[in-house]
Amino acid sequence: MGLIKEIDFGTPASKAVKMVTLTIDGVAVTVPEGTSIMRAAMEMGTAIPKLCATDMLDAFGSCRLCLIEVEGRNGTPASCTTPVAEGIVVHTQTERLKSIRKGVMELYISDHPLDCLTCAANGDCELQDMAGAVGLREVRYGYEGDNHVFAKQGGAANDQWLPKDESNPYFSYDPSKCIVCNRCVRACEEVQGTFALTISGRGFDSRVSPGMSEAFFESECVSCGACVQACPTATLTEKKVIEVGQPEHSVITTCAYCGVGCTFKAEMRGEELVRMVPWKDGKANRGHSCVKGRFAWGYASHRDRITKPMVRDKITDPWRETTWEEAIGRVASEFNRIQDKYGRTAVGGITSSRCTNEETFLVQKLIRAGFGTNNVDTCARVCHSPTGYGLKTTFGTSAGTQDFDSVEDTDVILVIGANPTDGHPVFGSRMKKRLREGARLIVVDPRRIDLVRTPHVKADHHLALRPGTNVAVVTSMAHVIVTEGLADEAFIAERCDLLEYREWAAFVADPRHAPETTQAFTGVPAEELRRAARLYATGGNGAIYYGLGVTEHSQGSTTVMAIANLAMATGNIGRPGVGVNPLRGQNNVQGACDMGSFPHELTGYRHVNDDATRAIFETLWGRPLDKEPGLRIPNMLDAAVDGTFKAIYIQGEDILQSDPNTTHVAAGLEAMECVVVQDLFLNETANYAHVFLPGSTFLEKDGTFTNAERRIQRVRRVMSPKNGYADWEITQLIANALGLGWAYAHPSEIMDEIAYLTPTFTGVSFETLERLGSVQWPCNEEHPEGTPIMHVDRFVRGRGQFVLTEYVPTDERTGARFPLILTTGRILSQYNVGAQTRRTDNSLWHEEDRLEIHPHDAEQRGVNDGEWVKIQSRAGETALRAVVTDRVAPGVVYTTFHHPLTQANVITTDFSDWATNCPEYKVTAVQVSPSNGPTRYQEDYDAFTKQSRRIATAEAAE
Amino acid sequence: MSHKTLDTLVMMANQIARNMMIQGEERALPQISEHIRLYWDPRMRKAIDAHLDAGGEGLDDLARRALTALRDERAAS
């Protein structure tokens, strides 16, 4: 196991189909038309010297090192910018080329420090490599003249010299080592799409400049790391590499943050992680990353991490560290006692969307087969459960229809209730790249998200609807498409249920769905909506991307179905560039759903009341399964308050912070007799726990995650678990303490069991993943290499089903007491409840949750930017600081929920999606008023948390 | 069964009914019953049955009829 060195072909691959044959150094080579000569040479194994070229970026042709000679052509063209042509004869090494290259390198080195031995890039420096490759032996110019290298020149300060910029917590910028190859600037533009970097000055004065010659941290830089990755020298270097040194081996693994599921090389020195570098062959990220996956992994070794099991009798007691044996024994005896006393269904559990498929599968198996109840749920309940319901009803599968690559073929992107540049940044960058190429954009969001206007991207239409009116807006779009004759009748006749379509078409054509009618309550101007609908229906390949702004509503499932209707009516299903694409929040939320985490479903979305399915599981597991659905998370909490639900096993999920109406969650947890929390940290839920089982990070275990495109990818262990066990092993310990006799030696055996039990997974195994890198389910006999795009010839359910989607306003209404609507969201640098990212330097970008409020609403209330405000709803109140901004419309306020002190969910209510009980986070009626600081509740809660997290010090061993 | 939990169940049943209503009664009624049969834990169904027996205060007409059908179907089986 060595360091994985990816081949750099110098320029991107050509997508052309036509092949061209040329001769390079006497060898015939055939490549797609449009390929550069540099790439063609590399394909046959010849590395032409280069500095400014790298295959993540378009050719630039500035370094003058990659020159070649072509027979019959004049001069020495750059091989990166010269495309191949049929029959040409290329020479990559001639006396003339050798001498030019040596001269070029000599100039570079004359303005570069010669501290190679103590340089952080030593061993990983392309400049060093090229000096070696061209045979540079001397620098005739000396170092006495103008330079960027030395702080002082002849005793006086050197104006050309700039000090290091250490402002970014994760990487440093050393201008003295810059060769102005432009790779960082181009990476920021082409890969990330932020345009934070530029080159200031001309000629010898040229410098890399973040923003207007600002420090990196003060500039628009989003710290994605693309520039650091692109830099061929030590100019931009990870601080960890400076501290530790170059890694010596690497392991391919999958990021544990959002649902994009980026593939990374974990670059190691022994068991120490040196850096995470995005892997070019990763099919979700194609070599790109964001500030979370690239840099925010320090939480794994944070001092807050709990590594020993702990128990306590009462939640008011301090924790007591103990052995695994005692802790697991306590769980088993308590669950047995409680089931004996209160009945089999008085217990349950929650699987984690952050753990692996294998771990999630085992938790639901433990609950169904071990506890003998279907009281199992997962945090998808609070995010994408409506996606499962809505897409299963209309298409027949509870998942998105495309792969991420599909966006490269999209002509019109329709983003509804998602903020990809913050929530799914790497996919957001891929989307922006396509938009810069000319794709059109429609954004449906109450807030002016970055995508609406960002460098070189501008939405054609931003439908800034009032929160809670999604169904009305999407149905109005359908109205326009149907009544203006824009529906794809041929597609509908071939693929959908025609009778249902006709009924649906008549339904949406009703004047009550006309945008002129709905604008009164949606706030979206009719003409704008009409133009957006026309663009989606007629602009070519139309793809819908949506997020929690769609699902987290009382009509979340209805909106998902309305979206599916829209895609079917316009024929935007079943080929590259189109589709319905839910952007999943957490790394493995798709997987958690696939693995049978919902109380009514076994793996592969099969209902527990299906006798044949149950029989397969019962036979294999040797235990009877309940045919009745179990409780969903909110119903578990209700039942706990009612005294019929007494114990819960929660793996990697912080329901107290993430679930709505905190006081209700707390009341439910407090009413239970045994709460078992398995997590990395003493999270908020653990305040109410009796047993704490320390969990392991994604760096410490083997398994798989499934991302938003149904892609199953390997997670590989790179270090020993600090707590002693991978999470699946802990669940197995509990199972065996309950007498289940499990004997899994490796997660691959668990995946084999999943594949045996699940028709859409029969072709999945660790061996398949090893061979293919990753695979998108369904992967079975019919699709041995997986399914990038679904519903190609027919819908999974047969014919696509049009569902009537009537707008039913939420019961959460604004009025005189609560005149504003609060909606919630995420920010780039933080993740979910922040348990991981708050324990990294990412907090420098976002230290606390803030409340965005429109200047008009702020002025009316005497609220000033940066001051504390109190926010009250029918459920509760909390306080945080205000940001006065017109990103939100008048009448709407917005906040994130990454910090426990904010307790944003004290305000959110019990209202939820009618079909799935997904909470209505996105609509809460509130009032906002100036305040002096945190509320009494927040202060009390803070004190309670401190009290609850006490760990008793062990008695002296005498 | 706390008052609050019962309120939640009544609200859930009404919400399901209101969202299904557009399909027309004939199709909506069995779909509402089916939805509750598929997704509600037995203790929730028992609680709403008891509430129905006690007069079913707060339930919309369609929800009430769907729940009654579900209760009768179970009683018959």
Architecture blueprint of SSEs:
The complex is a heterodimer of chains A (958) and B (77).
Chain A: E1 19-24, E2 27-32, H1 37-43, E3 69-70, E4 89-91, H2 95-110, H3 126-133, E5 152-153, E6 156-157, E7 171-173, H4 183-192, E8 197-200, E9 207-210, H5 226-230, E10 236-238, H6 239-244, E11 249-254, E12 263-269, E13 272-278, H7 291-295, E14 310-311, E15 320-321, H8 324-342, E16 347-351, H9 357-371, E17 376-378, H10 385-394, E18 412-416, H11 420-423, H12 425-436, E19 440-444, E20 453-454, E21 457-458, E22 461-463, H13 470-483, H14 489-495, H15 498-509, H16 515-522, H17 526-538, E23 542-546, H18 548-551, H19 556-569, E24 579-582, H20 589-594, E25 601-602, E26 606-607, H21 611-621, H22 633-642, E27 647-651, H23 655-658, H24 662-670, E28 674-679, E29 691-694, E30 703-706, E31 711-715, H25 727-737, H26 747-757, H27 766-772, E32 774-776, E33 820-825, E34 850-853, H28 855-861, E35 868-873, E36 877-884, E37 892-896, E38 924-930, H29 936-948
Parallel strand pairs in A: 1-4, 16-17, 16-27, 18-19, 18-23, 19-22, 23-24, 27-28, 28-29, 33-37, 34-36
Antiparallel strand pairs in A: 1-2, 3-4, 5-6, 7-10, 8-9, 11-12, 12-13, 14-15, 14-29, 20-21, 25-26, 30-31, 31-32, 33-38, 34-37, 35-36, 35-38
Helix pairs in contact in A: 8-25, 9-25, 9-26, 10-19, 13-16, 13-17, 13-19, 16-17, 22-24
Chain B: H1 3-20, H2 25-39, H3 42-53, H4 61-76
Helix pairs in contact in B: 1-2, 1-4, 2-4
InterPro entries (chain B): Formate_DH_dsu (IPR021074)
Protein name (chain B): Formate dehydrogenase subunit delta
Pfam families (chain B): FdsD
